[in-house]
Amino acid sequence: MGLFNKVLASIGIGSAKVDTKLHESQLSLGEQITGVVEVTGGNVDQDIDDIYLSLCATYTKEVDDRKVTKQAIIEKWKIAQSFVIRAGEKKEFPFSFSLPLDTPITVGKTRVWLHTGLDIKNAVDPSDEDYIRVQPNRMMNEVFRVMENLGFRLKEAECKEAAHYVRKNLPFVQEFEFVPTSGEFRGKLDEVEIIFFPHTPQECELLIQVDRRAHGLAGLFAEALDLDETFVRVTIHEQHIQTLQTELAALIRRYA
């Protein structure tokens, strides 16, 4: 009977189970993710090589003129290694780590989750997934507030595969597309796209694309060639928050 149970466990029947319990499932960038991983033994004793947590997110990739949803690992942590889980035994492994600053916020179709996996010798590896709601930190919120004050509305936010010269540590970036609905830029711009590259909780680099509205045949020709788009990089710091609206307005105005 013992041998038969081992055979079943090797294909995942009666094997150890894993369940991750998060203390909070809604977090802002940079906050601590805390929780506990519960491992429950199955019908037989099993050797566990590792317990690992992977922070994952979805993004889109263009393949043959269609969008395909892909998955990326933002960061991976090993929280335990090399132990034996006895039949019917329960073990708990607490964890705590910072939510990486380059984690996309969960807006639109973007999904972020914590994948828990066990590496078990000669057996199917059990796993668990827990979805997280990711909120912007203070620096991002200030940029969103300024754009709203300048008459822009967030039209779309999407994680998409990025060219190598744009990306940093991940294969994708999260683009925020703003359209002017009031104020001085209405009628002058089609949209402004912003990508955030956080350096620290207090400092962030912005890649801003200003898409000017076409005027006349020359403007339409430029729009067709994407010559009406301007890219600019700017670094903002927490100590400049008081003047952020003035500075961003001047920057957008310069390229409008």
TrEMBL record:
InterPro entries to which the protein is assigned, alphabetical: Spore_0_M (IPR009776)
Superkingdom: Bacteria
Name of the protein in its database record: Stage 0 sporulation protein M
Organism: Anoxybacillus thermarum
